[in-house]
Amino acid sequence: MLMEDIDLVRKLHAKYQFRAPVVDLGGFDAPNVAEYQISMRKAIEIEVAGRKVKVPHPDQSDRYRVVERPWNFLDPLYRALNPEYGHPPIEELPAGFPDFFGMAIMVSVFEHVDNPYKVSDAIFKILKPGGYLFNSTPFIFPHHPSPEDNFRYAPKALERIHTSSGFQYLEGGFHAVFRSSEGIGDTNPERFLDPQGMAFTYALVRKPL
Fewest CB within 10 A of the end CB: N or C in the chain? Predict the structure, then answer.
């Protein structure tokens, strides 16, 4: 999860006024949130062939911080439903929560699913008529199996997948883009401090009334 995800949901909430009950699909009660601006500010500037370039600072770990229940501003009683907590996978949630939630949030989860169309169909079924889905996912990001890492999505792909489930597409696009020249380093031990470029997309969709 990025700080940009939380900031974007705040802005969208001010615009659309999301309603409880809220569910965080695949999320955690206390997720690690990345603030890549910290790494960018600490980047080391060097001169190469007369040109100034930024290289990653040796300490990349301090860009992460635990944020307790990041969606409390939407619903203090929101649920984080995650198989790691013993909950069913998203595809099985309609059996227990038909037309139940007013808002579903899915951040950095969609790249890990087996079948994005089935997951989108399931989310449609657990939302009330008029309920919203916010989906944020990588377009460019290093491989990160958890336990699997299967897909990357352009904005149009998110729109196509969710509208095929019956959702009304409201907005989306690239909401966080970091160039590899900005001094962000990879934290994977196999690629430690390699310059890291990233891009993230989002879609906001609504189940028709």
Answer: C
Tokens of 134: 């916010």
CA distance 166 to 122: 11
CA distance 38 to 129: 40
| Encoded amino acid at 73, one letter | F
- Rounded to whole angstroms, the Cα distance separating 62 from 46 reads 22
State which residues form the domain around 75: 3-44+53-206
Q: Which residues pair with 65 in a beta bridge?
A: 33
Q: What does the pLDDT look like over 149-187, one tens digit per residue? A: 999 999 999 999 999 999 999 999 999 999 999 999 999
The total number of structural domains that make up the chain: 1
